[in-house]
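INPUT
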Amino acid sequence: MGSPGKAELKAGANPLFLREEELRRGLESLFYAYRAFTAEPDRILAEIGFGRAHHRAIYFIGRYPGITVSELLQILGITKQSLSRVLGQMVDQGYVAQARGTRDQRQRLLTLTDKGRALEQRLTSSQCRLFAAAYKTAGAEAVAGFRTVLAGIMEEVDRARMEEEHGGGEGEERPADANSAHTAFPNASAPRDPV
Amino acid sequence: MGSPGKAELKAGANPLFLREEELRRGLESLFYAYRAFTAEPDRILAEIGFGRAHHRAIYFIGRYPGITVSELLQILGITKQSLSRVLGQMVDQGYVAQARGTRDQRQRLLTLTDKGRALEQRLTSSQCRLFAAAYKTAGAEAVAGFRTVLAGIMEEVDRARMEEEHGGGEGEERPADANSAHTAFPNASAPRDPV
DNA sequence: TAGATTAGTCAACATGGCTGACGTATTGCA
DNA sequence: TGCAATACGTCAGCCATGTTGACTAATCTA
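OUTPUT
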C-alpha cells in the first residue's frame, strides 16, 4: 500500500483498487499459511535426515496404500528420477514396502510399514492439529468456504481426483490390501488418460 | 482411504475417522491449491531465468515500496545470503532500485523500477486471475471463510503484519515515497522486536 | 569513542527439482 | 510367437534455493 506507481488506482474508493487489494491479501494469506503448514513437518523430518519430498511421498502412500509408482508420480507431479531418490531411501530405511503387482508384475505397489505409518501419523497429526485449531476458531461455515475456494484454485486434475475419491466407496466395497488385483488409487482401475 | 492400518478407525461411522478424513482433505486441498498458485508465475519467471525466490522478493518490494533489506528478510524468513543472491540479480538487471535511507544511511530502501513493476504486475495479475475465478465461483461468503481459515493457519507474526497493514492508513496519512524518513513496511517505524 | 546495527561478501554444503540416456522385466497385441 | 509398449530403476550431471560460518565496511547510538 502506498505504492507510488499505483497512486491513480487508489485515489478515492476506486473499486478496481479495492478488488486488487482484496485479491492480494488472498495471495499473501495463502503464502503465509502454506509456510506455516510445512514448518512443523519440516522440523520433524530434519531430525531423521528427510525433507519435504519424503513427506509428500509418505503422505500419499499412506493415503493410497498399494499405489503404484507411476500413479504416485502423477499425483506428485515430479519426475521418476526425483521420486526414486527419496523413495529409495525410504525403502532402504524400512519406511516403505514394495510388492509386485499380481495383475501386472511390472508394477511395484507401495505401502507403509509400521515404521512408516508411525512417521506418517506423526507428520499428519501435527498438521491436523494446526488445521483443527484453525477450523475450530473459524467455524464450520468458514471451513466449508475454505475448502470451496481451494477447490477452485487447484487444477482440475487434482480436484477430480479428490472428488472421485470422496464420491467413491464410503464403505468396504473396495478392499485395498496391497496385493489385490487393483490398487487403492482412485484413477487406477481404468487408466483413462495414459501418461 | 482403505488404509489397512486404520481399519479400526473407519469401522462404522466413527467420528474420529470422519474428523481425520475431513482434516486430510483440507491438507491435500492446500497442497494442490498452492501448487496451482505457483505454476503460472513459475512459467513466466522461467522465461527470464528467474525463479520463485525472485517472485517472492519482487512481490513484497512492490507491496511495501521503500522496504529495507532486513524487513524483507523478516517477511521472507530466509537468510540474507539467500536473498542477496536473487536481489543482486534483480538490481543488476534493473528490476529493483536501491536508495540509501535518509534517516538511517545504512539502510538500503528497495523499490521497483518501471521494468520491475511491469514484471510484478504480470506475475500478480496472473495469480489474481486464478483467485478471482475461484472467488467468483465460490461466492463472497466462501471467500470470507477462506481468508478466516488461512489466517488461523498462518503464524501469528504474519497474521499480525497483515492486520496491522490492513487496519493502518486507509488514506494518505503515510506517504511512502522511497526516500521518506520512514519505510512503507508496517512494522518498520517502531522496531518492537529486534531481529 | 565503543559497541551495536545494517548491509554485503565469500565459501561450502544440502535438498530437491530437472534433462538425457540406458537397462530390464513384463505385458499386450498383430 | 515375436515385437513394441509399458513400468520401473539407474547413472550422470545441471540448476535453483535454502543453509551455516566467517568476515568486512559503513553508520548509528549510548
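end of record. Confidence is low (pLDDT under 50) at residues 1-11, 168-184, 186-195 of chain B.
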